[in-house]
Design brief:
This protein has 233 residues and is of the alpha+beta class. Helices cover 20% and strands 30% of the residues. The N and C termini lie far apart (61 Å).
């Protein structure tokens, strides 16, 4: 609405016009049921392509030489990173690819029911949303918890229009939602990291800052061989 007389009741907030949004309401007649189901797949807008272990080691050597220091990685070590023939001590990783998924599902379902008669009309909608997160997960049987990042949400809205008599009408609007989320907790007992945006940003930031020769792969026996990360401060 942009008419001055129509927007006058909104005061200065209506100076640039007012957009009126009317929610769906019931109708007189037999009950009408609408059911919709959506299955979609989400993906990050862009996943960065990180430097591999060999190129990182070469670039680190170049930095050291340019700063007047000795190279960190020997020719033998560079060859191990290039060929990937000794990953236990010379890891070749892709942290972004290993910990983040290229696509993940989202499902949505809505059920709408409307109807009524000349005296009362009603409209009710119930929606369910399931959304998985971007991180890959690995479940460990010895720990009784679900590490999947995901969200389950149920929302509902109902409205009733009742004509008490020719000059008196009554309406009732009810809405609400219930939600359960699994989000990564980076720093327990720290409220700043309980926000899902901060938690996801911290995990993703760590992946982007970690060189692809940082951590060793797990050995066939499930052990991790630790080595000093050269060139890190």
């Amino acid at each position: 609405m942009k008419d001055a007389s129509a927007t006058a009741v909104y005061g200065v907030r209506g100076a640039n016009g007012v957009i009126m949004v009317t929610t769906r309401r019931g109708h007189s007649g037999k009950p009408k049921i609408d059911v919709t189901f959506e299955q979609t797949w989400q993906s990050p807008t862009r996943l960065p392509k990180m430097t591999n272990a060999y190129d990182y080691a070469v670039l680190r050597n170049q930095v050291e030489v340019q700063d007047g220091r000795q190279p960190i990685y020997s020719d033998e070590e560079l060859e191990h990173y290039r060929t990937g023939d000794f990953k236990e001590l010379y890891p070749v990783r892709d942290f972004v690819g290993e910990f983040m998924r290229e696509r993940f599902p989202m499902r949505r379902m809505n059920v709408n029911v409307s109807g009524g008669n000349e005296k009362m009309r009603y409209f009710t909608t119930v929606g369910y949303l399931f959304q998985e997160g971007v991180f890959r997960i690995e479940k460990f049987p010895e720990y009784d918890y679900d590490p999947t990042s995901k969200a389950n949400r149920v929302n509902f809205r109902s409205n009733f229009d009742i004509d008490i008599n020719k000059s008196l009408k009554m309406f009732l609007n009810i809405s609400g939602y219930m939600q359960k989320k699994n989000d990564p907790v980076v720093v327990p007992n720290n409220g700043a990291y309980l926000n899902d945006i901060n938690a996801y940003s911290t995990v993703i930031g760590s992946l982007l800052q970690t060189p692809n020769n940082y951590h060793n792969d797990v050995t066939p026996d499930g052990e991790v061989l630790s080595t000093f990360l050269k060139g890190e401060y």
